[in-house]
Amino acid sequence: MPTSPLQLLQGTLDVLVLKTLTWGPNHGYGVARWIRDTTDDALAIEDGALYTALHRMERRAWISSEWGVTPEGRRVKQYALTPAGRRALNAESAQWQRYVTAVAKVLQPA
Amino acid sequence: MKRLPGFRRTIDHASSAARVSRDVDDEISWHLDRVTAEFVAKGMDPVSARRAAEQQFGNLDAHRQALRQVDGATARQRRWRSLLADTVGDLRYAVRGLFREPLFALGAIFTLAVGLAANTTMFSVIDRLLLQPPPHVRDDGRMSLVYFQKPGRGGTTFVQSSTSYPDFATLRDSTGVVDQAAAWWVADASLGRGLDSRQIRVGLASGDFFATLGTRAAIGRTLGPADDSRTATETPIVISDALWRGTYGADPTVIGRVIQVSQRQLTVVGVLPPGFHGPSVRRVDAWVPMRPMVAEFLGSDNWETSRQWFWLRVVAHRRPGVTAEMASTRATAVHQAANRAAKEDSTSSVVFGPIEIARGAGLSAGSGQSGLSAQAQVATWLTGVAGVVLLIVCANLANLLLSRAARRRREIAVRLALGVRRGRLVRQFLGETAILCAVAVGVALLLSVGGAGLMRRTLLEDVAWEGPALTSRLILFTLAAGLATALLAGWLPAWLASRQDLTGALKASARGGGQRRTPLQRVLLVAQAALSVLLLCGAGLFVRSLRNVATMPLGYDAQEVLVAGVDLGGVVAPGEPTLQFWREAQDAARQVPGVVSVSLGVTAPFASSWGTDFFLPGRDSIPEITDGPYINSVTPEWLTTLGTRVVRGRGFLPTDVKGSEPVALVNEHMARVLWPSGNALGQCIKVGADTAPCTTVVGVTENSVRDNLKEEVSPQYLVLQNQGVFSAPSWRQLFVRTSGDPDLVIASLRERLHGLRANLPWIEIRSIATLMDEGVQPWRLGATMFGVFGLIALLVAAVGLYAVIGYDVTQRWHEFGVRSALGARPAHLVRLIVSDGVRHAGVGLVVGLVAAWLLAPLAKDMLFRVSPRDVATLASVSAVLLVVSLAACWLPARRASRLEPTQAIRAE
User: Fold this and answer.
1) Mean pLDDT, consecutive 10-residue segments, chain A of 110 residues?
2) Distance, in angstroms, between B52 CA and closest chain A CA?
């Protein structure tokens, strides 16, 4: 039975994107591809929402951006984690871990 | 940032809205292309692959909008951040640059601060005198001081600021243009009795005075129409804040206290707000109602009906919608009709002038008379002068900045070559100027606090001027002046520097001689010198005027002679008791240490004059005498006491007593006018009536100044009190000649005189020099301020010349090295440099002298016995300027002449 894709909790997308960028700078397509591959398409993420998250975090200076040119001559925007972004990621993921632990405790069969 | 492999890096950030859209579109389309390619690789056909990619992206338009919005905000934020960072960077760069050249920075700041301080100080004076309505007087645009303008001789007009009571009443009641009007008059009075008494200035106010001015009391009440009545049982007085604090220790229970003012007991009913002096610039310590108090000061009963006695100043509040011009026209008609009906002079017109008293009647006062008060006139002049100082400072700053920019020519070229935009360079240069000006404004404010304080205490002593020296208006003015200076002086050098030829500057080495002075710099040098000459000429003329005043033969010694007077009314009965008092006063004065000689007189120079009917036997009229003759009735020691010399004949002798032949002394002028053949001695004059017995002229004295330094000498003669020639009123003044410090004598003389009778009011004791002082004040003010400003100008101009020549010398270091290697002697080099600098000063001198020659007649009225085109002054100013510019050029020239050729050529 195919499971329907999980809906994302508010703010979770930011953590995922930041985590992706810890592996190194990447463009939006690369980030989307990485999340999809890593989660085996389990999360229903609109690519548009992903880009919105990227741009918002750029505004908050969690990530920085730079334009580059591909060997074929296409302009591509790539993103990288800033120190502020790394701090945000640590805080967010710690919170996420606490949340998961708490929920797991409740759901664990006694 | 690490790069993805194969990506070239480009430096750019979206800044415009169009760029933001393009970036978002590019990003999305690249993403869709890649996703589409992914699907195609999985075996989908291109069209459905594209559709799948778009579906996976979500609502394309909505996301695109959202991204554009976020990016737009990011771009704006980035722009602000970078502008802020740039500005901070520019300012830090500027500060570092200034620290690298501390002499330049200090010179610029010092000259700027002095120039700004001069202007701030003068602005504070102008602000007090001319721009601000008097404190605590309502300012609704309908207040006017009223003046009366009369046609004078030769088409001129003569402005009278005072008028008679009936004229005031007509203006108030019958003209229909004012809804309130009041009159006032200020007189000296004695506060208290005995040694503790002091002199105060008391304003006599008509009933509506405070209502017209819209002034309320700080404590208690002001005066109203009910107080202005002869039948009131007690007479009220309101006192100034300064008197309340100074004399009554700010005691709120002073209300209701009865105080002694001259001969009257008055009840304090109110304290006025701080700084209130009515519409007057001079201090007024207290106000009393006019009707019950006039007799006290004027000794006259017919003041309410006499149209010939001009003594009241008038302030009016116009009806709504009535302009000053309309009011003047209408009031003039009514005023003239009333005077015609009363068979009086009906040619004078009424002028509704500004409420600021120092502005006088304003422009309508007609030609030749601006109507400004003497202080306001001098202050206006000095403001112009301060403006000129600021111009010189501007020119100097511009010159220093130009030199500095030239020094940094290569640095600028390198930065331009590295891609710094020219606009950014201009901003950096202006930033530097802004820092200089900001520091200078701070220093200037400090200096001007001191300057204004000094002005208040010394030169504008009789202007009532309370309140802080530093107001927000002054700070704003200084900031504005500083900003204007920064822009004026800084903009052009910055712009020129940013436009320089890039390759030329990069190629040029110091060996090429660098950049020589630009034509602009030459013009600035000449302008500075010319303006300094102008100011120095002004200073010279005023100093000469002041010296002429100081060395003018007065006909008596002004410094050593004290004049003592006291109002004996109510304490000593008139007639014989008064004369007795004065005889005792004379004896008492002789006992005071430091007193050399004592005499009594009726009138005193610069204070009072007296004329009486005068006849020569056998003549019906004496047309030779148009003014006077003025008489004084004295005691025999008069000439010794005053220090007046006898030119011909004899002075008074101890043998000239009651019963002996009455004698008189005439002054040289009178002797010459009446007896041109020179036989004045032995002539008979008749004083008081043509039936009077002969008084014989036994001597001729030197001429003396009567009451005005500028007046023509007038005929004056002296008779003796004890010979009964002249039935003068019984009031007297005591003249005391001192040796040593007159101030020490004043205190002990006052003590002695108070010892003669209990309850004497304030005894006024001043030297003739002090009496004269009010007349000398304009010249002293002019000489001091022109002198100070002229010196500042000279100093600034000299610093400018020194800096520019010094810079020149550094630039031509190599050239001088070559010259001296080729055999030029040091003296030759010095001459080369000095002549170049002095040439500029010379051109400036000529321009300045021409300007001074043309402008001089404007200052004519303010000078004293010196031609506005005084050659000696112009010559000495020229000499001073040339010497100073020689010195300013010689210092750097000497450095060049001591140069070792090898050293200079190697130096790069």
Assistant:
1) 56 86 91 87 83 90 88 88 92 87 84
2) 12
